[in-house]
Design goal:
Largest sheet: none
Bound molecules: zinc ion
Strand content: under 5%
Number of strands: 0
Number of helices: 8
Structural class: mainly alpha
Distance between the termini: 59 Å
Shape: globular
Number of domains: 2
Helix content: 40-55%
């Protein structure tokens, strides 16, 4: 391989973008971020226990590849757990280069206000396509992260 080919290959690898997040992935990530099972997420949408299985099956179906909800359904489902129906629509209809940047662990987008584990406004982690909150959760689970002490206890 010539130097030119090597450089071209390196640039190509560096510019490679991860697979775009699909609408069904986004739904699954946001439900996971809310720490809800399918049964918990489906619960607001049935009153008669005879409908429970059907509602759970439908909700689970929206997380399967190639499943796309109508906009009104997305606006209904997001009462169970927070996600942005407009982002969902973008992921379903727009080319990947127009998709918003999303955390690949929880589906967070930078226009959604939430806190990291230290109480600061959530932001992007320095590495990887994920948010700071997810990085902290992973490091905490691995035992390699300690939250900063509150100021009154740090002295
Ligand atoms: Zn995240």
């Amino acid at each position: 391989m010539s130097l030119h080919q090597q450089i071209t290959a390196d640039v190509g690898a560096a510019a490679a973008t991860p697979d775009p997040i699909k609408p069904w992935d986004y739904l699954r990530l946001r439900r996971g971020a809310a720490r809800l099972t399918i049964a918990q997420a489906a619960r607001p949408f049935w009153k008669n226990p005879a409908h429970q299985d059907d509602v759970e099956t439908i909700l689970l179906g929206f997380e399967q590849p190639d499943a796309i909800m109508d906009q009104w359904v997305a606006e209904t489902i997001n009462r169970a757990f927070p996600f942005d129906p407009l982002i969902y629509r973008q992921l379903a209809e727009d080319p990947a280069h127009l998709h918003p940047r999303l955390c690949r662990t929880c589906g967070w987008d930078e226009w959604t206000e939430t806190n990291d584990l230290e109480g600061a406004s959530n932001s992007w982690a320095e590495e990887g396509e994920r948010c700071k909150r997810c990085e902290q959760l992973e490091r905490r689970a691995a035992g390699t992260w300690q939250a900063m002490l509150p100021l009154d206890r740090a002295a």
